[in-house]
Specification:
This protein has 136 residues and is an all-alpha fold. Helix content is 76%, strand content 0%. The chain contains seven helices and no strands.
C-alpha cells in the first residue's frame, strides 16, 4: 500500500508528506527497515501514531484559539471526504483501510496493532458519527 495515500487519508494532503517523511526519517535514524519483521505494518502503525499526535496538537491549538476569540468555531462540512476527515484519527484509518483499500477487519487489526473487535468498534463509531452529521 502506498504510505502517502494512507497518510493523506489520515491527515489530509497538505500534511501527508510531512507525516511520511517524519516517520521514515525517525525509523531510518533508529534502525534499518531490513531489521524489522514486517516493515509495512511497522510503518503504517508509525504513520497512524504520528497522525494522532498531530491531530491532538491541532485540537489543542484550536481550543486555545477559540478561548482567545471567546466563541466556539463551528464548521459544517458539505462533502463526504470532509466529514471523514473530521473523524478521530483511528476511526478515519479504519474507514480508509476498509472502504478504500478493501482490507478485512483482521488485516486492519494486524496493520494497526489491535484486535479485530476493536477495528469493528471503530468502524461502528465512525458510521454512527457520519450518520449523525449527515442527518443534521
Amino acid at each position: 500500500m502506498d504510505l502517502m495515500r494512507y497518510a493523506t487519508a489520515l491527515v489530509g494532503i497538505s500534511d501527508a508528506g510531512d507525516v511520511v517523511s517524519s516517520v521514515v526519517a525517525r525509523v531510518v535514524e533508529r534502525r534499518s527497515l531490513s531489521e524489522l519483521d514486517d516493515p509495512k505494518q511497522y510503518l503504517m502503525k508509525s504513520i497512524l501514531n504520528e497522525s494522532r499526535m498531530r491531530h491532538r496538537s491541532r485540537s489543542r491549538e484550536s481550543r486555545a484559539m477559540a478561548s482567545l476569540v471567546g466563541e466556539p468555531v463551528i464548521e459544517r462540512p458539505d462533502h463526504t471526504l470532509e466529514l471523514i476527515m473530521r473523524l478521530p484519527v483511528r476511526q478515519r484509518a479504519v474507514v480508509y483501510l476498509k472502504y478504500y483499500e478493501q482490507y478485512t477487519s483482521t488485516e486492519i487489526a494486524d496493520l494497526m496493532g489491535c484486535r479485530p473487535a476493536t477495528v469493528r468498534r471503530y468502524l461502528h463509531l465512525a458510521r454512527n458519527k457520519l450518520r449523525e452529521v449527515i442527518s443534521e
